[in-house]
Amino acid sequence: MRFGGVVALGGVSFDVGYGQICGLIGPNGSGKTTLFNCISGFYRYTDGDILFEGQSLKNLGRHRMAGLGLGRTFQNVALFRNMSVRDNVLVGAHHLGRSGFISNAMRLPAVRQEEVQASGRLHDLFDLLDLNDLAERRAGSLPFGTQKRVELARALIGGPKLLMLDEPAGGLNHSEVDDLAQLLQRIRAHFDLSILLVEHHMNLVMRVSHKVVALEFGLKIADGTPEEVRNEPEVIRAYLGETKDMQHAGAA
Amino acid sequence: MGKATLWGVAAWLAATIVPTLLLSDYHLFQLTMVIVYAIAILGLAILTGFNGQISLGHGAFYAIGAYTTAILMYQYNVPYWATLPVSAIVCAIIGFLIGLPALRLGGLYLALTTFALAVAVPQLLKHNALEPWTGGVQGLVIDKPDPPFGLAMSPDQWLYIFALAAGAVLFLLAWNIVRGRIGRAMMAIRDHSLAAEAMGINIALLKTRTFALSALYTGIAGSLGAIVVQFVAPDSFGIFVSIYFFVGLVVGGVASIGGAIIGGAFIEFVPNIAEKVSKAAPGAVYGVILIAVMFLMPGGVAGFIGSMFARFRRGTKSAELRPIAVGGSGANDVPAGVPGGAEPDAGGHRSM
Questions:
Q1: What is the pLDDT confidence band of residue B174, given thresholds at 50, 70 and 90?
Q2: How confident is the model at residue B172 (pLDDT cuts 50, 70, 90)?
Q3: Pick the CATH number of A1-69+160-252 from 3.40.50.720, 3.40.630.30, 1.20.1250.20, 3.40.50.300
Q4: ipTM of the assembly?
Q5: Which residues of A touch B187 (CB under 8 A)?
Q6: Could you tell me which residues come within 8 angstroms of residue A8 by beta carbon, excluding any fewer than 6 positions away?
Q7: pLDDT tens column, A191-237
Q8: Average pLDDT in chain B
Q9: How do beta strands A55-56 and A211-216 pair?
Q10: Chain B within 8 Å of A97 (Cβ-Cβ)?
Q11: Which of A63, A100, A106 lies at the smallest CB-CB distance from B200?
């Protein structure tokens, strides 16, 4: 993946197994989000390929990803601000429906059926994510942490096989990060899915991931269990800098 | 559900019977025009309010609908009611075609492009090549339809009932669309098109079809308007028609189905009121009224009613919960604005 003459991502190769939580780490500018956007179809990649369940994601329209089973959240929260929490989450179920303008206008039985199914899934998620009291609130009026939960619900209602989370801990305080770690484990237990977690917050990644991939300058520098990656000299160098006398222990 | 339907039918019957019995033909004509404008504004609300595509040229679709009906009635003796589906289809197709380039144009550029359409259409209607159908600058005069089945009522009474029935059906269909899967997708695109795409919404498909639907509504309004006024001419479809629709949209509340009715009433009655206040400068009075409405009700009239309603509900609720809710519902309790919709300044118009 290049931007002009800059190679943002070159020769990164790894896989995410079924039911795994895979953490993707790296310093700023290492290509985490670029990789994320390539997988979710927001960037078109030219070289190499990304396979999802054996199918290439090259040249697929962005709106096709949800239907394949790729669900995502956004780094800075991309909710539909003027819509209610309920409607936000229901949009996540869009790709499960088939009804069009005419059947919706007439509110045919098939449309009602879809709505009933979607609200069934909605109520399960509202229970899981503790959103029941907020259903009719305008999404844009909620605190940041709550918006992140709404976004998670929106990504989950479509029944993704791979849930991709772009810095879910960003902007959260200590106790919220703890809650998030528990929530991610609950989600993985509750739904039949894999999670790709792009995250700055080392602690969180190391706690919940089965597998961690580390990037630097668009290249993979480590790949393995959290324990292996934590002890990899390259990772320590990338995060803490080459000179040992610098005391940047908390840099992550 | 059953109760709501019952209330709806009751309200519709009352709106049909009461004015028909009590009002003079002229006042009924005015009410009929309110319905016509409301349908036109509803079309604009679907596009701009719910989908975030700004149009300053919906007068063009109104004109096309009006001319379709007038030409069919005048040149081909088609009965008035049968012209409505034809003009619906014609306007939907034209709307779809205009929706295609609109995909590449966001926000203000789309507004200008549609504005250009509104400027061009009256000129095209005067064009010599079309004169055998359109009647050129003179326009076409069509007959006022008589009440069917020999009903003992005036043509104005009948037209009011006819327009109200058509309007009720159109409003019901629009309400069904915006509250369901398609309506949510429209609003999702308006609020955050990238996220909407990630949710599996095909933006190109949805936006062009929304444009078609919007043009269909405004086109049917044009048809009804032509039947009610009994006359079409290019100069009655200048750019000011588009601007009035836009004014009605914003005054009523951009993303509101009910707001379209208020908007229709505003553009029908407020110019008359302004005239009564000051014969010398009705335009100035109109402007003052408009600014006052925008200052007092920044979410449009529907937004204002919605937030009053929300405040009322919250008021009764917090009265029940008073001991607990002391500091709890503070900072984030921004008034919710339009039910299920947008305050215009909070991003209702953001489209790209």
A1: very high
A2: very high
A3: 3.40.50.300
A4: 0.87
A5: 80, 82-83, 87
A6: A1, A2, A31, A34, A218
A7: 889 999 998 888 889 999 999 998 888 888 888 888 888 888 888 88
A8: 84
A9: unpaired
A10: yes
A11: A63
- Determine, for residues B337 and A105 on separate chains, whether the beta-carbon distance falls below 8 Å: no
Residues of chain B positioned with their CB less than 8 A from the CB of A90: 181, 184
Segment among B166-175, B177-186, B250-259 with least mean pLDDT: B250-259
| Shortest Cα–Cα distance, A156 to chain B (Å) | 11
Sign of CA dihedral B196, B198, B199, B202: positive
Quickly list H helices, chain B.
Answer: 2-22, 25-44, 58-76, 80-102, 107-126, 131-134, 155-179, 181-191, 193-198, 203-229, 239-252, 259-277, 282-296, 300-320
By the 8 A CB rule, do B253 and B259 touch? yes
Chain A residues closer than 8 Å to B209 by CB? 101
Domain positions in chain A are 1-69+160-252, 79-158
CB contact under 8 A, B199 and A92: yes
Asked if residue B348 has pLDDT above 50, the reply is: no
Dist. CA A121–CA A89, nearest whole Å:
10
Are A106 and B173 inside 8 Å of each other by CB?
yes
Instruction: Set out the domains of chain B in order of their start, with CATH numbers.
Output: 2-346 (1.10.3470)
Q: How far is B23 from chain A (nearest CA, A)?
A: 33
Report residue B278's pLDDT band, with 50, 70 and 90 as the boundaries. confident
Q: How far apart are CA A95 and CA A114, in angstroms?
A: 11
Helix (H) or strand (E) run with residue A36 in it: helix A32-39
Chain pair A-B, CB pairs under 8 angstroms: 122
SS3 A44: coil
Q: What is the largest CA-CA distance in chain A?
A: 72
A51 near B CB under 8 A:
no
pLDDT at residue A145 above 90? no
Residue type present at position A32:
K
Judged by a CB distance cut-off of 8 A, whether residue A124 touches chain B is no
Distance between CA atoms of residues A85 and B336, nearest Å: 12
